[in-house]
Design a protein that fits this description.
The complex is a heterodimer. Chain A starts with a strand and ends with a strand. Chain A contains six helices and six strands, in the order E-H-E-H-E-E-H-H-H-H-E-E. In chain A, strands 3-2-4-1-6-5 form a six-stranded mixed beta sheet, sandwiched between helices. Chain A is α/β, with parallel strands linked by helices. Chain A is about 35% helix and about 20% strand. By secondary structure, chain B is α/β, with parallel strands linked by helices. Chain B has an eight-stranded parallel beta sheet with strand order 8-7-6-5-4-3-10-9. A two-stranded antiparallel sheet of chain B has the order 1-2. The termini of chain B are far apart. In chain B, helix 2 packs parallel to helix 3 and helix 9 runs parallel beside helix 10. The chains are: A alpha/beta, B alpha/beta.
Chain lengths: ~170, ~290
C-alpha cells in the first residue's frame, strides 16, 4: 500500500546532462528537489512510475540530487509519479495551442489538490495523450493503491514553457 | 591548470579575451586612434564594458618603423598602466614589450602580465616576471629580431619549431622562478611566418594545446587572414572569427583581439560545441 505519493514532471531539462549555465527550470528544480527529498528521506525503497521515456531518468536524477541512499524498486510505499499536464497551452508550446488543454489541465489540477483517490481514478488518459500530457494513465492506475484519507500540498503549479507542471505531495493520514 | 595572471586567477575551463590597446600613432589596425592617452583610456573603458578580462597595452607597433627607444616606450605606457590600474582594479593588465627595462617599470606601475611578443629577444625579461611574480607570454618568432618582417623563412616543421621554442622559453622562465601557473605560450601568427606557416599553425593548434601549457592566440585582423581572403585591413573580421573558431575548438584559452564582443561569442560557441562550456540557457525540446 502506498503511504506517500509525489507527483513531479519528467522534464528533461532537470537532467544533469542537459544543464545550462543559467537554469531555465530553476523554480521547478528547487521545488521538486525539496519535495522529493522531504518525502523520501527515511524511505528504504522508492518506486518511480510514468509513461514517458524521461520518467525514470528524471526520477532517478531527482533522487540523486537529494542524496537518496535507498533502493529503487516496484511496489514501494513511497512513489514518484512522473506526470504533467498538457504541452499544448500556447502558440509557443511544444505542441502548439489546443484550446481544450486548459479545461483538461483544470480537471487534473483539481484532482491533484483534492486528496481524493477517486478523482485520480476518473482522469482521462486518452484526452491526455491527445493533448501531450504525460503520466495521466499512471495517476489513474495508482488510485486503487491509495486507500484512506490524504494530506495534500501542491507547492508548484506553473507552465512557463507551455507545459503544465506540478509538484504535488500526498501523505497518508 | 588554474591560470594565475598577477593578482587574478582563472579556472581551467575559462576562456579569456585580451583586448588590444595601442598607445601608438601607427599600429596597423587602428592607425593611431588611441594614440592620445585619453582615447586609449576610453578604449580600455569600452573593452572592460564589453567583458574583456585582459587589456594588452602596447607602446610600439610590431611592424618596422620609426625607432622607439626604451625611454619613449616607457613614456607611452608606464603612467598609463598606473592610471588603468587605479580605475579598474579587477582587470588584468598586460603590457606588450620585449624590453626588460620597460617590463620592470610597468610591473612597478601595476601590470599583471608581460606579453613578450618577440620570443625572448631580451633574456632578462623572464627574470623581471619572476621578480614581480607576474605572468609571461612565451612566443615563437623563428628567431627574428624585434620589428622585422619575415623574409624567406622556412621551417622543416613550423609547428614543431613553435612548440620547441615556446616550451623551452616556458621551462626557462620556470627555472628562473616564474610560477608555472603564470605562463602562456603563443605560436605568434605572422611573426617569423608566412601565411602558409600561420595557416598550418592554426590547423595544428591542438598540438600546442597538448603540451599542457595554456595557449594564447593573436589572430586579429592579421595579414594571414587578409592574404587568405584577399581582404584589406578593415574587412578581415569574418576571416578572423573563422580562424578564432578553429583555434578555440583546438583548445586555445586566451584570445588577443581588437573586436571583443564578436570574438567572445565565437569562442563561447566553439567551446560549447566542443562540450567544454554549457549552453547559456537551453529549453528547446526539454520542457
Amino acid at each position: 500500500m502506498i503511504r506517500r505519493l509525489v507527483v513531479v514532471p519528467p522534464v528533461p531539462a532537470l537532467l544533469p546532462r542537459y544543464a545550462s549555465l543559467t537554469d531555465p527550470v530553476a523554480d521547478l528544480r528547487r521545488s521538486a528537489t525539496f519535495v522529493v527529498g522531504a518525502m523520501t528521506r527515511e524511505a528504504e525503497e522508492v518506486s518511480i512510475v510514468g509513461d514517458d521515456p524521461f520518467a525514470e531518468p528524471v526520477g532517478r536524477a531527482l533522487l540523486d540530487a537529494t542524496g537518496f541512499a535507498g533502493r529503487i524498486g516496484d511496489d514501494a510505499e513511497v512513489v514518484l509519479a512522473m506526470a504533467n499536464g498538457s504541452a499544448k497551452r500556447g502558440e509557443k508550446a511544444p505542441g502548439h495551442l489546443d484550446e481544450r488543454a486548459f479545461e483538461f489541465d483544470d480537471v487534473v489540477d483539481a484532482a491533484l489538490r483534492s486528496g481524493d483517490p477517486r478523482r485520480l481514478a476518473a482522469l482521462d488518459p486518452e484526452s491526455g495523450a491527445e493533448l501531450w500530457a504525460s503520466g495521466i494513465g499512471v495517476l489513474r492506475d495508482l488510485a486503487p493503491r491509495l486507500e484512506g484519507t490524504w494530506r495534500v500540498s501542491v507547492p508548484y503549479a506553473d507552465a512557463p514553457y507551455g507545459v503544465l507542471w506540478w509538484v504535488a505531495a500526498w501523505v497518508a493520514d | 591548470m588554474t591560470l594565475r595572471l598577477g593578482r587574478h586567477e582563472f579556472a581551467d575551463d575559462r576562456t579569456l579575451m585580451m583586448a588590444i590597446v595601442n598607445r601608438t600613432p601607427d599600429s596597423f589596425f587602428d592607425r593611431g586612434a588611441t594614440w592620445a592617452e585619453d582615447a586609449a583610456f576610453e578604449r580600455v573603458r569600452q573593452v572592460v564594458d564589453e567583458g574583456a578580462e585582459i587589456v594588452d597595452i602596447g607602446g610600439i607597433k610590431a611592424a618596422p618603423g620609426e625607432e622607439i627607444d626604451a625611454e619613449e616606450e616607457k613614456r607611452r605606457v608606464v603612467d598609463f598602466v598606473a592610471r588603468v590600474r587605479r580605475e579598474w582594479p579587477q582587470i588584468v593588465i598586460s603590457v606588450d614589450t620585449w624590453r626588460a627595462e620597460v617590463a620592470r617599470a610597468v610591473c612597478e606601475a601595476g601590470a599583471d602580465l608581460i606579453n613578450d611578443a618577440w620570443g625572448g629577444a631580451d633574456p632578462a625579461l623572464a627574470e623581471v616576471a619572476a621578480e614581480f611574480d607576474v605572468a609571461l607570454v612565451c612566443t615563437h618568432t623563428g628567431g627574428v629580431a624585434p620589428r622585422t618582417r619575415p623574409h624567406r623563412i622556412e621551417y622543416e616543421d613550423v609547428v614543431a619549431a613553435a612548440i620547441e621554442s615556446t616550451v623551452a622559453q616556458a621551462e626557462r622562465a620556470v627555472s628562473l622562478g616564474v610560477d608555472p601557473e603564470s605562463i602562456l605560450i603563443d605560436p605568434a601568427h605572422d611573426f617569423g611566418k608566412n601565411t602558409f606557416h600561420s595557416l598550418e599553425v592554426t590547423r595544428r593548434l591542438d598540438e600546442m594545446v597538448a603540451t599542457g601549457w595554456p595557449v594564447l592566440v593573436s589572430l586579429s585582423n592579421k595579414d594571414f587572414v587578409g592574404e587568405s581572403l584577399d581582404r584589406p585591413v578593415g574587412e578581415r573580421l569574418p576571416g578572423t572569427l573563422a580562424a578564432t573558431a578553429v583555434a578555440a575548438t583546438a583548445g586555445a584559452r586566451v584570445f588577443r583581439v581588437h573586436q571583443v564582443p564578436q570574438t567572445r561569442d565565437v569562442v563561447d560557441m566553439a567551446w560549447t560545441i566542443a562540450g567544454r562550456r554549457k549552453p547559456a540557457r537551453a529549453i528547446r525540446g526539454l520542457a
